[in-house]
Write a structure and sequence with these properties.
The chain has 810 residues and is an all-alpha fold. The protein is 63% helix and 0% strand. The chain has 40 helices and 2 strands. Strands 1-2 form a two-stranded antiparallel ribbon. Helix 22 crosses helix 23 and helix 32 packs parallel to helix 35. It starts with a helix and ends in a 5-residue tail after the last helix.
Length: 810
């Protein structure tokens, strides 16, 4: 019975195929094509039966002729492209076996090769890119948008199923890629009297072409052809025509992600892209947060007050530099946010709009990888650079003031800060945007964050922008202005222009460093009124972590570190003494409290460790402080504070020059402290090494700052290890070989063995020291190799990041 059914099905399949080949009328051909499609969908006809048919009975030449000419044996067939593309689509997407992927590849490979290689794919391109069929001169109907969309879907499916053959034939097809790229052109605005074929610009065809382009652009060869054909400019213009940032249209997102994919293959194309007069301005328009939907139409967001109260942006000024004025740093972030949120609208970017802005930032990360390209962008694309900076510098407006633009999420703002730090760290741009003050405001307050982790992420991200942008010359000048403030304005009125008259003029504002010092001194100690206030405690953490991090930027060399010893509070207490007292106070609070909150001590210990590095004067001041004994107690245990305290004292041992000025501290005494209170030298070093994997640190919310910390920490631990090895191996070798030979003649035979033992010990110490030096050289070589690998893999990482963000078509 089953054999009879199989034979009947085979006979029916052969009959269907024979009807196509031997059709004598147009209606017979149409009904035959529809019957083939129905049989494929009903799975009564195996797709492989069609592609495996003998040459005489194969319908593939018939289908190809129909789709190209809309006729068979001089017999015109109405709407043949639509009928044939429906058959092709069903044939390539439906399988009946247990291995659909393998069968789909076999079918697509056959269609690509038969009846001749490349002919089938060229026919699909002809259908996709033409508003009329090849036989339009005979009065045939034009190709429907449905057929064109179906043809594009078939090409996309074939490219995914048989990528190698498809790529080769696309590159060989006459103007194939150029014609497919033209489908992405925005529809021109038809003027009266223009002969404008709207069918050629059907939106459905264009949208499907956009999905196809997203698939084909993953091939480097295709991407390069399209970039030289200025498809990138076309895609950017299409994104603007579809509404730009406003509303977060999915077509706009597809355009931006396609542009990122096109640029991800070859960074050398970035220079070519930036020569376009339209691409840069169009990308800038996509970053203009004033175009966001909630900012454009505030009443549509369900806000609490009228649009009049919400303060539309003043029409007399449209400059984001003026609109995003620096808020008063003395006003608490939480307080100002509560006041603003209760009185005015907070327009925010919608999730689709956030995706568009993120995709644009991904494009900039690819384009600006080259330093030469960055220099060109800084000078020739200033509007684009300024909008990225303004996105990074978003902060709460002054109380009762409207927001100048839509507010991004914390994640997006942090992404903008990272792009600014890595690629747009230009000092002229920093000055043009009043960047130092505005970045320090973010550093000390956390900006728009509402949770502690969010505020810390913004704080340390802004800190890293300053770290990458400020130069040594600027930081030295700011330090000098702190110790010797700028002269006051000595201009006088004409009537007071006499000898002995008192100059009059405005008092100069506080410079950057005094602002940071004031913030530190005001938040070093927890007020009794804030002991039970969680928000006040979190605010103190952000203020102190940010201010100490900002101040550490000015400790660039031994001279600047030594100058910082002269910093003092208004009551005359030095910065170093204030920090040591705060450490002692925090230790007492921790001992009395059941909670082990080591945040404050961690940020202070990091600052101190950075401060004393390569600064013997600071080391002497630290160890001679009456509060330095607290460090001995803090070394004990396995806590994170104990590890950083061990590192601090280890660095002090390295940079300790004059033991007579250290209040009784010596290198041997520090080594003994590590041995006794640190559980032994081995455990002491193991704790320092194991801390390299610690991820839950106050600055861990910023990947760039965490990377900076890791690099500095590795270098510092290596420095401490070298010093420990030197102290252990060379402390007893205080004489050279010549002295040893002189003493050898003076010793008696009874002490000869002891002398030999000491000589062997010294030789062993020298060998250990030599091996330590060789290991150090090997470590440096490995570090250099890792750096080169990281640089080579960075481009690959960006490509994978962009590809993962590409929206998969349905």
């Amino acid at each position: 019975m089953e054999a009879n059914d199989s034979g009947t099905a085979a006979a029916d399949a052969a009959l269907l195929l024979d009807r196509i080949v031997s059709a004598s009328t147009s209606q017979d051909m149409v009904s035959s094509l529809e019957a083939i499609e129905d049989a494929l969908k009903a799975r009564t006809l195996d797709p492989k039966e069609i592609v495996r048919a003998d040459e005489d009975s194969s319908i593939l030449p018939v289908l190809l002729t129909l789709i190209q000419t809309s006729q068979w044996r001089d017999l015109p067939v109405e709407d043949a492209p639509t009928l044939v593309t429906r058959v092709y689509h069903t044939l390539t997407t439906l399988t009946t076996s247990s291995s659909p992927q393998q069968d789909a590849k076999e079918i697509c490979d056959t269609l690509l090769r038969q009846p001749s290689p490349g002919r089938w794919l060229e026919a699909l391109i002809d259908v996709s890119c033409s508003s009329g069929s090849a036989g339009a001169t005979q009065g045939l109907a034009t190709v429907s948008p449905y057929a064109r969309v179906m043809a594009l879907q078939i090409i996309e499916h074939t490219a995914r199923t048989s990528p190698k053959i498809t790529q080769t034939q696309l590159l060989q097809a006459p103007n194939g890629l150029h014609r497919l790229g033209d489908l992405l052109q925005p529809a021109p605005i038809a003027q009266p009297g223009d002969a404008f074929d709207r069918a050629l610009y059907d939106e459905q065809v264009r949208n499907q072409a956009l999905l196809l382009a997203a698939t084909l652009s993953r091939w480097s060869a295709v991407a390069k052809v399209w970039m030289f054909d200025e498809v990138g400019d076309v895609v950017a213009q299409l994104a603007i025509q579809e509404g730009g940032l406003t509303g977060g249209n999915v077509i706009v997102l597809d355009c931006v992600q396609l542009l990122a994919q096109l640029l991800s293959h070859d960074a050398a194309l970035a220079d070519l892209v930036l020569q376009s007069p339209t691409l840069g301005p169009n990308l800038a328009r996509l970053l203009d947060l004033r175009q966001a939907a909630q900012f454009q139409s505030p009443t549509s967001t369900g806000t609490r007050e009228s649009t009049k109260t919400l303060g539309n942006v003043p029409s007399t000024s449209d400059d984001l530099d003026d609109l995003l004025a620096t808020p008063d740093p003395k006003v608490s972030t939480l307080q100002s946010q509560e006041e603003v949120s209760s009185k005015i609208i907070v327009p925010r970017l919608t999730p689709p709009e956030e995706k568009i802005v993120t995709a644009v930032l991904d494009i900039l990360a690819v384009v600006l990888e080259s330093e030469a390209v960055r220099n060109v962008v800084w000078t020739k694309q200033k509007p684009l650079v300024s909008l990225v900076w303004e996105l990074a510098l978003i902060a709460p407006p002054p109380p009762n003031s409207p927001y100048p633009c839509a507010v991004p999420s914390i994640t997006l703002q942090q992404r903008a800060l990272h792009v600014t730090a890595l690629y747009l760290n230009n000092r002229d741009t920093l000055d043009r945007h009043n960047g130092v003050d505005r970045l320090l405001y973010l550093v000390c307050t956390g900006g728009m964050g509402t949770r502690l982790d969010q505020r810390l992420a913004i704080s340390f991200s802004a800190l890293h922008v300053l770290r990458r942008t400020l130069g040594d010359t600027q930081t030295h000048e700011m330090l000098l202005h702190t110790l010797a403030p700028p002269m006051e304005d000595v201009s006088m009125d004409d009537e007071n222009d006499e000898a002995g008259s008192t100059p009059r003029g405005p008092k100069p504002p506080l410079t950057v460093v005094p602002k940071l010092l004031n913030t530190i001194f005001e938040n070093l100690h927890l007020l009794d009124s804030d002991s039970g206030d969680r928000h006040a405690q979190e605010r103190r953490k952000v203020f102190l972590a940010g201010a100490l991090g900002g101040l550490s930027l000015f400790a660039t060399d031994e001279a600047s570190r030594s100058m910082m010893l002269r910093f003092s509070s208004p009551d005359g207490k030095s910065l170093l003494e204030a920090l040591m007292e705060a450490l002692e106070a925090e230790a007492e609070i921790t001992d009395k409290s059941s909670q082990n909150d080591d945040f404050i001590r961690l940020v202070i210990m990091r600052f101190l460790a950075h401060w004393i590095t390569e600064a013997p004067m600071v080391v002497h001041a630290l160890l001679s402080s009456p509060h330095s004994t607290v460090l001995t107690e803090m070394v004990s245990g396995k806590s994170r504070v104990a590890v950083l305290t061990s590192l601090l004292l280890g660095l002090a041992m390295e940079h300790l020059n004059d033991e007579s000025q250290c209040g009784g501290w010596t290198r041997s005494g520090l080594l003994e402290t590590f041995a006794q209170r640190g559980g032994g030298i081995s455990k002491f070093m193991n704790r320092l090494e194991s801390f390299k994997t610690e991820t839950d640190l106050p600055w861990s919310g910023c990947a760039l700052e965490k990377r900076t910390w890791d690099t500095w920490y590795d270098k510092s631990v290596l420095m401490v290890r070298k010093r420990v090895v030197q102290e252990l191996t060379l402390s007893g070798d205080d004489s050279d070989e010549g002295d040893a030979e002189d003493r050898e003649s003076e010793i008696g035979p009874d002490s000869k063995d002891d002398h030999d033992s000491r000589g062997n010990a010294r030789m062993l110490q020298r060998i250990v020291a030599q091996q330590a030096a060789e290991i150090e050289l090997l470590r440096d070589a490995v570090t250099e190799s890792k750096l080169q690998l990281n640089l080579q893999g960075k481009a690959y990482f960006m490509v994978q990041l962009i590809r993962s963000s590409m929206r998969e078509p349905a």
